[in-house]
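User: Can you predict the 3D structure for this chain?
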Amino acid sequence: MRALYNLALLLLAPLWVPYVLWRIAAGSWRERWQERLGFVPVPPPSDKPRVWIHCVSVGETLAAQPVVRRLRQLLPDYELVFSTTTPTGQQTALGALRDTVDYFIYCPLDLSFAVRRALGRIQPRALVLFETELWLNLLTEQRRRGGRVLILNGRISDRTARRAPRARPIYAAMLRCVDFICAQSPTDAARFIALGASPSRIEVCGNTKFDQALGALDRTADEWRQTLSLPEGAPVLVVGSTRTPDEEQLVVDAYMRVRATLPDTCLVLAPRHLERVGEVERLLQARGLTPHRRSQLPLSDGAHAQVVIVDTFGELASLYGVADVTVVGGAFAPLGGQNLFQPLAHGKPVFFGAHTHNFRDIAQLAKAAGVGFEVQTAPELAEGILRLLRDPKQRAQIAQRASELIKKHQGAAQRCVEQVLRWLQ
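Assistant: Here is the predicted structure, written as structure tokens:
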């Protein structure tokens, strides 16, 4: 199967090679592009064994944090190597794990020579992959070298579950290289098994994002209100991780309806990708609003901001703490949704769209607990926000239920760590 896979890569080279070259020359891979080809900045191993932990982007990196910190405590004689695929994931890792991880790298492309060079340099005793980051050359080469392969926080998205059966031989070949899978849910475990994983080497351990969520409770609401120059006592709507102009248009429409009834309501809007800040700023200005960028706050002379655009990296998880009500984007369009754990960890009610297939389990749990609310239109969103802003008693009840929900499902990180220790031994 690996020979066929590499033959396919070779035959498809006219398609993917120009894309890679473009990403290196003019895209987000320009920085440290050599690492994509296996030239990782990791010295030859000394007398300390190594564990290589890989995440794709921001979401997986956040999920990995409680696991990595616990491994650091329990494996003081090991060196930890942490890789990501995206620059935003790398930036998140560097910001959160700089004092925990020994080496940060970009994961090489799944080309035989690149993964062989990287693995030869790192020589990990275990390769730990988060969620569904499966690559045939990487896995088979690690297996060939005699190292362990573990999947933590494992999940198979609805989209992958629909498409994967057509590529089952490739999935089966990859999963034969995996020693153990810590799945997020029984549904995910069943999907891994359907794709070829051995039932004896999989366990439902839960979602480590429940453990990570509480790590964002680092600043109080009053501190954020002062930092953002928000008027004292004014209700605050925090909207996080919007990804398209249509999503932002829907949210702003809802906000304008809320503001028509409660004119003091403040809006804090954080687009998912910072390169879209200017676009979002123009949208708000076109609606007659005066947005202030987070990087330019607080304002001087006691002036107040009513509309804030978050143009800084890594603050959203903590920023939810200033909200009375929250909205999480990525689900008003068929994009799969974004992180619902962070506002819930602050005890905040959260609204989201119908397309939550990347956060299927937490969305269902939030709705069942009465702390998360699925809406589809701006009027529906505005009505829900107004209902909660007018009812502090209900918001207090939601805060209690959200806290109980997060605490009830914690412990996945420890269960994952126990499996890593078991297979290292």
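The chain has two domains: 26-207+410-424, 218-408. The CA atoms of residues 171 and 304 lie 55 Å apart.
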